[in-house]
């Protein structure tokens, strides 16, 4: 059975099976699963009698269709009784992934009197007299709103607010696990820019920061820019800036591996939406040699018609030679390919045409722009957004530490200096003596990452002048502020 997609824990199933109590039965199960292209990750005996054994077989599959094929293959075996199939991803989501815990015990009348009435009235009056005390005396000091309208959920499109909620819950769980930040999903049943801005402004007093998530471009640019102007707390669009930070960190180390300088390389970026735009603008700020932006309109170039304002800006500020061909032609002789777009746009043969010691970041999820197995035959460094592949470029490397640093510094805005500082911190966690073609970013579970990012962001917030200037800065007249005009997300 040919399986082109890679099995993943995201499509893990547990199958309860009754088999005859003989020496070969369990071996037949694992062999059948392997022949079907799945990966057995656990096999547990849950019950038995003199004639039968009941087992729970857990395996990773490639998608729901592949899972069905695996179950069919097991059902077809003589003497095998498939009794139940459980999708482990759906089991994990039953009842949601987050909950609220009180920090105070409220065991006695005295504790209740201090936490609530009458004692709480004194705290309310203190904040009324000095609103800045809200950061010290309420959850505002450590709480972030994860805001989405559901218009660009992962790579799935416009699913709406209810369907976006599992992603926002997951984001909140990651904030807590990796940054110690209390985050809460705020999904909005509107995709009107003015309404979103007004709603977020209205709820902002309860939060120390706003994380915009899965809002479609180009609307996300205006929403972020207007909220940054209106609020005195940081507004961070993770699909833009989180992705750009992680890509810059990964590229920093990938270039160290191949011995190239950013100023000397040509980069092709597939996907000029939120993620791609932010990546390109941050690379331009850092002095990249040249960039070709590719999207549905083709290679963005000067003189091209029908471009929205964001694409028009890219057409005017990238693509030095004004290339106007297809994507395979764009990657020919390029040093770096960065994909934040759609699956299977390139082949291994296309990667073979890139420059010597090429770098490929194929970040579309769950299926990359090029099969990483094929890309590794020709590129020196390959990264994806997948957790089951080496060099996973994942926003969780950035956003928990970024917000931890901003909250600790009582920052009022997210800045480009913070982005650069965070990227350098992530890259440096690996260490120049540790990097190699399969290790250009730290693990998302590396306990050093979030504290290092938080410290770097805190320092940048408290003393922006201490952040080294980016290489070959094009200047504000040529390049608008990234935080107001960028975009990003794998």
From TrEMBL:
Q: Which Pfam families match?
A: malic, Malic_M
Q: Which SUPFAM superfamilies match?
A: Aminoacid dehydrogenase-like, N-terminal domain, NAD(P)-binding Rossmann-fold domains
> Keywords, A to Z?
Oxidoreductase
> Do you know which InterPro entries this protein is assigned to?
Aminoacid_DH-like_N_sf (IPR046346), Malate_Decarboxylase (IPR051674), Malic_N_dom (IPR012301), Malic_N_dom_sf (IPR037062), Malic_NAD-bd (IPR012302), Malic_NAD-bd_bact_type (IPR045213), NAD(P)-bd_dom_sf (IPR036291)
Domain Malic enzyme N-terminal span(s) in chain numbering? 95-228
Malic enzyme NAD-binding domain: residues covered: 240-462
At the top level of its lineage, which domain of life is listed? Bacteria
Give the GO molecular function terms.
Answer: malic enzyme activity; NAD binding; oxidoreductase activity, acting on the CH-OH group of donors, NAD or NADP as acceptor
CDD domains recorded: NAD_bind_2_malic_enz
Its name, as the record gives it, is: Malate dehydrogenase (Oxaloacetate-decarboxylating)
Q: Organism, per UniProt?
A: Micromonospora coxensis
